[in-house]
Amino acid sequence: MRTREQSARPRAGTWLARRRSHAALLGALAAWVAPPACAEVAEVAEVQFNSDFLMKPPGQSVDVARFARGNPVQPGEYPVDLYLNGNWIGHDALRFVTHAGAAGAVPCMDKTVIARLGLDVAKLSAQARATLAIARAGACPDLAGLVDGATQAFELSELRLDLGIPQAFLLRKPQGYVSPEFWDEGVTSATLGYSLNTFHVAGAGSAGTQTYLGLNGGVNLGSWHLRQNTALTWQTGGQRTYQNIATYLQHELPSLRSQLTLGDAFTDGAVFDSIGVRGMALASDDRMLPGSLRGYAPLIRGVAVSNARVSVTQNGNKLYEATVAPGPFEINDLYATGYGGDLLVTVTEADGSAHSFPVPYASVAQLLRPGATRFHVAAGQLRDAQSNGRPHLVQGTVQHGFNNFLTAYAGTIVADGYLAGLLGTAFNTPAGAVAVDVTGARAQIRGLNNTTGQSVRLSYSKLLPATGTNFALAAYRYSSSGFWALRDAMLARSEAAAGRDPGAVDRRRNQLQLTLNQGLVNDWGNTYVLASTQDYWNRGGATVQFQLGYNNTRRALGTSFSYNVSLSRQRNGLTGQMHNQAFASVSMALGTGEHAPSLSTFLTHNNTNGSSAQAMLNGSAGADNAYTYGVTANRAPGSGTAGVNGQYRSPYATFAASASGGAAYSQMSAGVTGAIVAHPGGVTLANSLGDTIAVVEAKDAKGARVTNASGVRIDRFGYAVIPYLSPYSLNTVDIDPNGMPLDVEFKSTSQQVAPRANAVVVIRFDTVAGRAAVIAARLPDGAALPFGATVYDAQGQGVGAIGQNSRIFVRGVADEGTLTAKWGEAADDQCAFAYRLPPKGEDRGAYAHIDAVCGATGIMASPAMARLSSGGKIQ
Known about the structure:
- Helices cover about 5% and strands about 50% of the residues.
- It contains five helices and 52 strands.
């Protein structure tokens, strides 16, 4: 969600900026002749105003009676910033409507606005609940009809709507919460993502070409989503390979906060190792939770003796702040912060006194928030490219967070010739986060007897703020000689069925992994250690990997550069051979401009191939960095190579090519990636696809830029595709009108949507097509029209107001017609004038400038011809 500053910032030349300018003009006029008042105009004493204070010719009057009861708002749609009890809750295009007997228009409390309020429906009156049902059906009730004691105030000059609702009628919702009833399931659609690449190599008297085509297709029908992912490879000699990577049908179940998958799926790997299954899977989907409830964070409880301010910090960074009432309070919607560091909770009372207390916070993958439950059930056939068999299996896992300290989890697997069970617990302690689990398994493998055993796994994570040391992950696993993991057992059964030795399948005995990060003081960078080792029951020797490194970023000579050095050592468990390597790299920007290239150099030395050096120059060009390029050179013992690569990211596809060569070979490649989306409005080309996407519809707005996705612009049919949206969360979509035709304007340039996972949602931006013009209108005697008078088109719609020097800015008008200026209800308090815009292409500047003369009696008997202005701009 955007901040207040982002939402309120006008864009030069946009409809929003022009509307704000118009609103400011009317607001200033209203403020001059009447005290500020809310759009609701509740209980404002009726007063009278003297129009002689306005700029107008002597003897002429302007009707300001409509300001007698405040600052009335004209009906229409306004882009406003919404505030609830003083807190900004969003930016939206809000419709204002007039109710019978009202002095001005009031905001329409439609279902979109109501969703932002977070009303506690159970505390509303029966009449209010009936009004709420009408609003959800598309009606437009007033706020006072929904909540007793609610207030609203609209500041026209700032386009700000302040809503006041008693706290008793509001739900305490987690940060980022969106009610499921406002999740958008999207439209019926079909999508196809594609990636085509061909690679040619020539050298040593031979040449070969290999081509790859990847396709990712989908069909959406309501809340059902069909997906199919395939790959086709062919190469010189006619050999072709086709692979069906995955085909599945998915349907969400919001009541269970889960996804049902029929077809090909993978288990989540949170309890057991992840495996592929063809059949059925039902699994929790944490994306349906607000962002503040995903991942692990502790529940904070405390007591306040007055209306107090509670703040939560971690390592000096403020994570949360809220005002609480006297008595016990609870904070359960902290955003997860990775592997953490202890929290410091500070309660500042109304008299200024404060007290603090710590809350331990460390996390491992198995930890859940207090009260949270996660489950995964899968049934079907095992999918494994290395196994010829397709054994049937059922797997189920469950995790539950009991409190800040304890999370318990369990799981079981039942398969052909295999049975396993797992029990585990995870703890959040002041000494760090620890998870311990034990798996017992029994396998039936022909030719083997010892196939029953146990496996113990221990995980640990801790951040030491005093030293900046972060044990990001430390895990140890020990398996007894008779323990077989599911995949190993199925591979062994497949080997036995083929008449081969099942005991040749590798089985891990011990496994240790360590990731350690150490930040250094005074911006001296960061050191890290990565280490792992594992050995096997069925063969000798251990596989060992160890890496020690340091990285940092510095600024010198007007630019910044980053560098990294590392030492690594690897031992091959099969051959026992040691591989040692030293690596160093330096990267720096060559300039400070938007498209300044960067230069990177790499030096490598190992005990197998000796020393080598590589240099890379990368850069970009064009709007939205549509063009990227790279030049590389490499020097190794006895050889030298060089290469170039380039990419063009168009709004409809991405094209890439590369070439390189050395003394013994040459290489060339070319490729294109993109997507096609079929939706109710037609077919739209896209650069890429994500799981959840949006189709933006903005008729006649060709060339307008969608700011949420780099390089995405409205096509000539009025559509564009945003490839990546966050499901079940509010996504703000903004349009930048720069680049679209001048004779088209947006009624709103920002909208929000909360799509369901895998949906294709349509976001419609209404546009108005027509010419724009600055009209200098005068009375027949050459006098100026009254400042502030409203101008209407032939359909009675307000299109502007008289500004200084009798100038009018109009937009979205026909090439010729009649406009009427009104400053009162009498026949002499209005005048109509005909206009005719110059032919397109003859406009001077961005808008046409014309003069017009009112009819002598106010209502013209015959059109008066508007004449071309001799030039000039709006004063």
